[in-house]
Write a structure and sequence with these properties.
It is built from ten helices and seven strands. With 271 residues, it is α/β, with parallel strands linked by helices. The model has no long low-confidence stretch (mean pLDDT 96). Bound molecules: NADP nicotinamide-adenine-dinucleotide phosphate (NAP).
Length: 271
């Protein structure tokens, strides 16, 4: 445990830490001896998560209630952590709560999504990676999605942002891994998080938010995969379903991959 803290501590910053995979990642980082900065929008929920982590792991915590889609979010985060040595960055927040056609909402929805999923993680990596490189150690995990493999309906900006995240993590790995910093693009398939439950419930796919969405991987499996593959970047495909999807995508033309995704999304979620 202390070896992990020596390699990646003393502080971790987790963006999207109030529930689901992000809060579980924060708890595991704390269990491994890191102090954690927990960031999301809901202050009260963050406070509860932070209290549980302090009680369970005996580490220090700091909470930041910041909307990552708001202008100036990265600057606010950087200023609020200026006194901390951040050795580990997890960028988890990133789901699209709407799953709607591109033209059905205002452009500002897509712009906010790209701000949160592309601009801010890039800005935070640019800031926090330099001290990691200077120390010759550190870790960065950026959450991706199978939606980034090829374009599909109802996820025009979302899928594009997740392609950005995957390639961004890969490229960053090529530069930082020789300098001692582990970079991992963690590509998830359907995963049982509060955000997914809310979306599926709103769409009538599950009858209650207490229900596990059928076919969803567990949060614990995602966390286990992240830590098991931390030093084996640049990319980790979490679970057999997403690994099979990636193989299928690689075996067909790009145009066929898009047609396949369009059919699969329509079959799984309705149009
Ligand atoms: N769940 C899946 O099936 C699935 C599948 C493929 C990929 N993924 C990826 O896995 C990651 C986690 O997904 P998730 O399902 O747990 O949902 P998510 O909404 O991306 O993550 C939830 C966490 O992010 C925070 N968050 C969301 N928007 C935020 C914003 N604008 N500013 C600050 N914090 C924000 C939420 O807290 P607050 O509400 O308190 O702000 C919460 O702590 C995402 O990157 C997603 O793309 C998920």
């Amino acid at each position: 445990m202390s070896e992990f803290a020596d390699g990646y501590g003393p502080w971790a910053l987790v963006a999207g830490a109030s529930d689901g995979v992000g809060s579980a990642m924060a708890a595991e980082l704390a269990r491994r001896g890191l102090n954690v900065v927990l960031l999301a929008r809901r202050q009260e929920v963050l406070d509860d998560v932070a209290a549980g982590i302090r009680e369970g792991a005996g580490v220090q915590t700091r909470t930041l209630a910041i909307d990552l889609a708001a202008p100036g979010a990265a600057r606010e985060i950087i200023d609020a952590t200026a006194d901390l040595d951040i050795g580990f960055l997890v960028y988890c927040a990133g789901a699209d709560p709407k799953f709607a056609p591109f033209l059905s909402g205002p452009l500002s929805d897509a712009e906010a999504l790209v701000q949160r999923n592309c601009m801010v993680p890039m800005q935070l990596c640019h800031h926090y990676a330099q001290p990691m490189v200077d120390r010759g150690r550190g870790g960065i995990i950026i959450f991706g999605s199978g939606a980034g493999f090829a374009g599909g309906p109802n996820m025009v900006a979302y899928g594009a942002s997740k392609a950005f995240d995957m390639v961004f993590a890969e490229a960053l790995w090529t530069e930082l891994s020789p300098k001692g910093v582990d970079v991992l693009g963690l590509i998830l398939g359907k995963t049982d998080t509060p955000a997914l439950r809310k979306l599926e419930h709103e769409r009538g796919q599950i009858s209650s938010p207490e229900q596990t969405p059928p076919g969803a991987a567990g949060v614990d499996d995602v966390v286990a995969a992240a830590f098991a593959n931390l030093a084996d970047g640049p990319t980790c495909l979490v679970g057999p379903e997403i690994q099979a999807a990636a193989q299928l995508m690689a075996s067909v033309s790009r145009n066929d991959a898009v047609r396949f995704i369009a059919q699969a999304v329509t079959a799984a979620m309705g149009s």
